[in-house]
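Record format v2
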Amino acid sequence: MVEVQTCQTMAEAAASLGEGARYLGGGTIVMRQVNYGDQSFHRIVRALQPERGVRGDVQGLRIGAGTTMADLLASSEVRFLHPVARQIGGPAIRNMATLGGNLFAQNPYGDLAVALLALDAQVVMSGGQAQPMERFLAERGHLRGLVEAVSLPRPQPGTFYFRKVSRVKPKGVSVMSLAGCLRSGDPRVVFGNMGPAPTRARAAERALAGGLSEAAISAACSVCTEGLAPADDALASAWYRREVAAVHLRRMLDSGASD
Amino acid sequence: MAKTPVTFTLNDAEAALFVDPGAALVDVLRRGAGDLTPKQGCAQGTCGACTVLIDGVPHLSCLTLAETVQGRHVETTSGLAGGPDLHPLQKAFIEGFAAQCGFCTSGMLMAAKSLLDQTPDPTRDQVIEAISGNLCRCTGYEPIVDAILTAAAEMQGRPAQQGVR
């Protein structure tokens, strides 16, 4: 049986975390582990007032870790993220699942983290220090501390792309998910569920650095699986994922920006 | 380990219970409050059979830490009927044969109630989206969607368009 510790603020919760403790956000990850008798933790820490909601200023956007998918869908500030949030779970999951939890979601979940990596988000830890998504994702398995929020620059209109590939519509987990922030010069192309964590397809990014010409798209598609390490799971084999990745990258680019 | 006191509104009544640490709301509703309408299906947020409304919006009670509903309003299927009078959704489910084994039905009803509370006259696509987190292993989705549209029509005071796809 687990012990539950209820804190007022995220700072208090961060201070209470430690060996054998897990932070409870929306519950969609941690309560599932509790229900299945996960023995890797014996204490749940939660905060009554997590940072929740979207705040925008001239610098960019800050989204609290306690912001749910439904909150994102209700915010006009992050309209570009609506296609991402809308495809996560059904309505009940979207009312519960938080941005903070999605940053730690293991395959086949974590579509929002894919988008946030493409958007060059910074992960703000309780205490204020921030680190880029890419470093955060590399270290998330052995991280100390608590995620308070993410901050990100507003994408230029018409540059953000997202595609989720699932076998069940309208709700299904990802065979893979793809996100792109395709500003000229320094584009981002990110694949989810094509490795242990969301991964940038750097060869594809280099191919698209000069713009979205047909030749550039073809070049990007031909090299898009370089550096990716998909696994076999119940949804698809690693071989299948490698075979179809280019098809979905092309479809994402052909279908146009989602903002 | 010490139990935690939790008070909340369950349908139209006040509930005051002591819950085990880490207990999920579905267990507390079923074993503590004796409300057997939320079903424990997958216990991992996949099937939607345990769907209840918390402060009017759908939540999965298997993934809700029970003590987090302190002071909140929880609605389950047992609160849908008004005495002997079934809710239009329940009537439509019965008349439209929308329940086969029945295990998903209470979750479907709560997801549908939430939809109709916010969108009284939904399109077929909106109904499908609203129940997209609820699995029916009898695969009887078409009668369920029809029943929700029928109930919506009845609640709007117009004749149901049976079989409209």
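The beta strands of chain B are 4-10, 13-19, 51-54, 57-60, 73-75.
Chain B touches chain A at residues 1, 4, 20-22, 24, 43-45, 48, 51, 57-60, 62-65, 67-68, 111, 114, 128-134 (CB under 8 Å).
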